[in-house]
Design brief:
Blueprint (H helix, E strand, L loop, with lengths): L8 E5 L9 E5 L2 E7 L5 E5 L13 E3 L2 E3 L6 E2 L5 E3 L15 E2 L1 E4 L2 E4 L23 E10 L3 H9 L4 H4 L6 H5 L2 E6 L2 E11 L4 H7 L6 E10 L3 E10 L8 E13 L2 E11 L5 H32 L16 H19 L1
Antiparallel strand pairs: 1-11, 2-3, 3-4, 4-9, 5-6, 6-7, 7-8, 10-11, 12-18, 13-14, 14-15, 15-16, 16-17, 17-18
């Protein structure tokens, strides 16, 4: 399967990458090693020693370098071999490891698998709500045995809630229409749910509407290849949306292989609302975790099993009105992949 290469992908949450031991992770069909130097700067390189191709992630960090676990060659963050403990210590000319541009932003480590000359950190979309100076943030991750675009489809498809996630559903959810908007190379999927008289209790807590009907909304914003923000809002029925509370969620999908995905998710609440929101965020992320793990993932993994090694669209699925947003996103991805092939 082809992927967009000239773009940033989340490789790990920042807290997963340390200067004590390397982290190995399969990303876009490549073994990638992540670590930090003594100053805390992240680095990413191919997780394969050029000598006998042992995984460098099985090694250790020594003197600010990665030491191969097999024969002790050491490589710095630029991928250069700086130590050969054998013979006269001469460094072989080809003793280099491919490196990747990497940067830390929004509580995550991002890597660029394409042309290093094009790796501009300014191309990482803004997720202002992932700034822990102003927001309480809770995060998590999952490994899903399904293609990353199936995950994108899932988040953009707000119609599946009443069928797959009964904990989030109510009559107001079922009767609400789903609509989409295309804004340049980004896609919105929206579902407004006015007059919800029977929302789940934890929904009332999040939006601070202890009684009476609630106006709720879910708005999802997608940017290629797989950056997504979900705005879950609520306010007492009849009041302006601006007076409500909006829970902002990040959903980032990084392909591991054509059939598996690293799923990074987070939610936040403004600290300005009050310290009690720290606990609300913790409870909220746990409330989201179970549906992801026990409801979404089984469906997506079963889809992948039926799709096999094929591309979903090559199998010519029927397209319903609720598929408009995900279909638009897939077309944008295809166009970007095609442009890189031509370029």
């Amino acid at each position: 399967m082809s992927f967009i290469k000239n773009c940033w992908y989340v490789a790990a949450w920042a807290v997963e990458v340390s200067d004590n031991s390397p982290l190995g992770r399969q990303l876009l069909d490549m073994p990638v090693l992540l670590f930090r130097d003594a100053e805390g700067n992240p680095a990413a390189m191919l997780d394969r020693c050029p000598h006998r191709f042992a995984p460098l992630s099985m090694g250790s960090i020594q003197d600010n370098c990665i030491e191969c676990p097999y024969h002790g060659l050491r490589f710095n963050a630029a991928g250069e071999c700086v130590h050969n403990p054998h013979g006269d210590g001469r460094i072989p000319e080809r003793a280099r490891v491919q490196t990747f541009p990497v940067t830390e932003r929004h509580q995550a480590i991002w890597f660029w698998p394409g042309d290093p000359e094009k790796a501009d950190p300014a191309l990482i979309p803004s997720f202002d709500f992932m700034n822990d100076e102003y927001f309480y943030i809770a995060s998590g991750s999952m490994h899903v045995k399904g293609n990353y675009l199936l995950e994108v489809d899932n988040i953009l498809d707000l119609s599946h809630i009443q069928f797959v996630h009964p904990i989030f559903s109510s009559p107001a959810v079922s009767r609400a229409a789903v609509k989409h908007e295309i804004d340049g190379e980004t896609v919105w999927s929206k579902r407004d749910m006015p007059g919800d008289e029977t929302p789940p209790d934890f929904i009332r807590q999040v939006f601070n509407v202890p009684e009476g009907p609630l106006d709720r909304w879910l708005h999802v914003h997608w940017q290629a290849p797989s950056y997504m923000t979900l705005y879950a809002g609520g306010v007492a029925a009849g009041k302006p949306f601006e007076e409500g509370i909006v829970s902002q969620q990040a959903h980032w999908f990084t392909p591991e292989t054509a059939g598996t995905t690293h799923y990074f998710y987070a939610m936040s609440e403004p600290k300005a609302i009050g310290p009690h929101m720290a606990e609300v965020v913790k409870q909220g992320i746990e409330a989201l975790k179970a549906p992801f793990e026990y409801e979404d993932a089984p469906i997506i993994e079963a889809q992948q099993d039926r799709i096999g090694n094929n591309d979903l669209m090559d199998l010519k699925p029927i397209i319903l009105s609720v598929d408009a947003a995900s279909t638009a996103a897939r077309k944008i991805v295809d166009k970007k992949i095609a442009a890189e092939v031509v370029g």
